């Protein structure tokens, strides 16, 4: 008995310190690479594998793992400390700073609430259209702000609207069928759904209750009619279940739509920005990627994926009746008018649009227009006005100019004390410093792989993949990235794979964009688990969904996203980026090079 107790205590202690054990044992197990083999490639491989394991397991903060190149590369003689330090702040960070300045102003002055609620007031109260309205609003927001920010902006609105809808149904219940909203409840069911809409972690299973109705003999016909309008226990159970299913669909839809919308623009999500900066560093002569043609490629992917995801979520959570797609609704019932009024009241609470919202909206539109017209490709852009310095101006320049503008433009008129549109404290609270450091560590790792020759060694190793059709190679890369990104940070995933996939494309003599673009977009297809990305975690914390709900929905959405991406790359992506030709800006790989 004593031995068993001691063994139990030992196992408990090991589990409590499993993170520390992993931190210590991982480098010890990898030590043969730098000590036994001893080449520069092996030493850089040691750093890469150590960082990959730490990033995947998150035993130490991601940003601190990103600091390892600054420690290990000088010790291994791969790069000097000053050379590594230069990799940690670059054009990507300036673009991120400018975009976060705008996002801070949008959130501070409430423009995000107006953007999120407006589509909902337009689409109506049918569960399907309500779901699409919220998903569209969140996807649009995530095109311009970080995905996590978009979800944290929209979820409180979704939670409040769902509560109001349930309240409207409770007050307006008349016992008649409601095939549109399908949230009819009596008091006990409404209470349970209100609990579900709070911070509870598991929805309660509705208990079956029975209603006793006494029928006076002298008014039998009227009583019969009243009895028909009294909901039975099965109807109440059905209403409760439908209410919970709508909550699940709405919450999962918000998380997924933020990831789907984020891929649409270059600053929409961190992997896109990391990819753009990697391209600028590894292929400095490549001018194929800009805001405009990325939008042309990814906007159709986002629209297709969003619509199919909407239908998929409707089918698995709400119902399989898709007649609403082609049937025109007649005159709205009293119930529908009541629910519509609730949504309109929520929008009216925002009041008239403020001057701060207008200015923020103007900055937002100007930023998009300047990005689109800087160097559109098919015609000279405004960047050509600076003929000798056109290559010096990037999207980061535009973002910084408009971002800094928000720090000194007065938020109010001269009748009030001076206050800028945003303050440093507000910006600092919104700035994702962890992502900034993570990306810097990724760039340092990529530079170390190039300096040590590890990239070339990986390219030689992967040369046999050139015998496969290009689309097959792309599909394999997409599936590997999509699988890994379910358990690893999106930014960490793309940071690991970009230095590997670039030499792979060169080795098989394929346009690097043909492989890098799909791999980058696939890192955003992390739909299976709450830990897959922060938006999933934020939605899961509300307690409306279980992990199995997310897995069940995420498997289908992963397939939808990958198929839509492959369709785009194989069709309009080829002429858009000349993917069928090997570009001059990519180096020619020679497999016989010593």
TrEMBL record:
Indicate where this protein resides in the cell. Answer: Membrane
Q: Which UniProt keywords apply?
A: Ion transport, Membrane, Sodium, Sodium transport, Transmembrane, Transmembrane helix, Transport
Whether Hydrolase counts among this entry's keywords is: no
Protein's membrane topology: Multi-pass membrane protein
Major subcellular location class: membrane
For this record, the Gene Ontology CC terms, alphabetical, are:
plasma membrane
State what protein this is by name.
Answer: Solute carrier family 13 member 1
Lineage summary: Eukaryota, Metazoa, Chordata, Craniata, Vertebrata
